[in-house]
Amino acid sequence: MIQRRYEERPYCYGKIEIVFPLGGDGLRHTPESCMPCVCKTQCLRDAMQTADGISVREEVVDRAYHGGTMRFFERWLRKKTLYHWKRSLR
User: Fold this and answer.
1) Do residues 23 and 29 lie in contact, with contact meaning Cβ atoms separated by under 8 Å?
2) At 51, is the secondary structure helix, strand, or coil?
3) How many CA atoms lie within 13 A of 1 on its CB side?
């Protein structure tokens, strides 16, 4: 029965700018409208596997580097890995 619910996906399913938009504070937040949705967790997971989701991961790496919690070589390695992931999606 749960699988059946996932088959009936809403129009916004997996669209990162809808299910995990950038807030006014510069951070990403799940909107209140997504909270009652039964497939919100899988939706966000699927959204993060897209090229746009990888861009969100790059934002996190850049924010950590500029905040001083990540060194140059760690940033370089993570950005390189994300770049290859994004290229594999094309």
Assistant:
1) yes
2) helix
3) 0
19-35 tens-digit pLDDT: 999 999 989 999 999 99
Written as one letter, the residue type at 52 is: D
**Domain spans of the chain?**
1-49, 51-90
The tokens for 21 are 């938009």
pLDDT at 89: 87
Q: What is the dihedral of CA 11, 3, 5, 2, to 10 degrees?
A: -140
d(CA 83, CA 29): 24
Per-residue confidence band for 1, with pLDDT thresholds at 50, 70 and 90: very low
Instruction: Return the CA Rg of the chain.
Output: 15
